[in-house]
Amino acid sequence: MMNWLDSHCHINDKAFKDDLESVLENMVTNDVTKAMIISSYIEDFYYALNIEHEKIAFKRSLGIYPGDVNDVDEELFERFAKLYEDERCIAIGEIGLDYYWVKDNKERQKEIFERQLALAVELDKPIIVHSREAIQDTYDLIKKYPVKGVMHCYSDSAEMAKEFVKLGFYISIAGPVTWKKAKEPLRVIENVALDRLLIETDCPYLTPAPLRGRRNEPAYVVYTGQKICEHLCLDEEDFKKQLNENYHRLFGL
Question: Is this model's pTM higher than 0.90 or not?
Fold first, then answer.
């Protein structure tokens, strides 16, 4: 039997500082045995390297989050760039653009994003992309670079999802696909080929139904996976196999 995976989680977040071992055991209990731990801060990346479990295959990524670009000087950027060369940094991310939270530094966001895109090409590493209310600018910048990657926690239109797939990207689906008003996420999974889909929690955020209101954790990725299977009338084992193939192909595992 194939197991589930969480392609994007933040279990190095302070939200898990008091019960991380329990969270890991919940993963095993729910057959979630692969996960990518995402870091936006250098200290979080080093902490993520120490998160281990004998029954879970963890991988790690690091990237300058778009909401933090105002705090990034040249010295700090170079520290990130050096760590991108580390073989333990499987991917560069999450990186991208966010015009929802900060609207007055768009050019700075694009500058830092583009510099990281260039590094991804140079290092031949995939990227993990955050885009919120910035999908066209995100697309336009990515299109300039021969990079591979995944649109994390995808929340835009099915039409744009297909455009990213044409660039060779994967589309990662999170908890919102399980929510009652999830019309567009359902359209996305209907329009993206299975060999370009991934699933994630983005925990501790975006808890899927029926657990909304709780802190999210990797074990809950099962609800997202099962919702997709239910909506698309997929065999669960076949879907898990496809997810694992996609995950390995993208991240070169």
Answer: yes
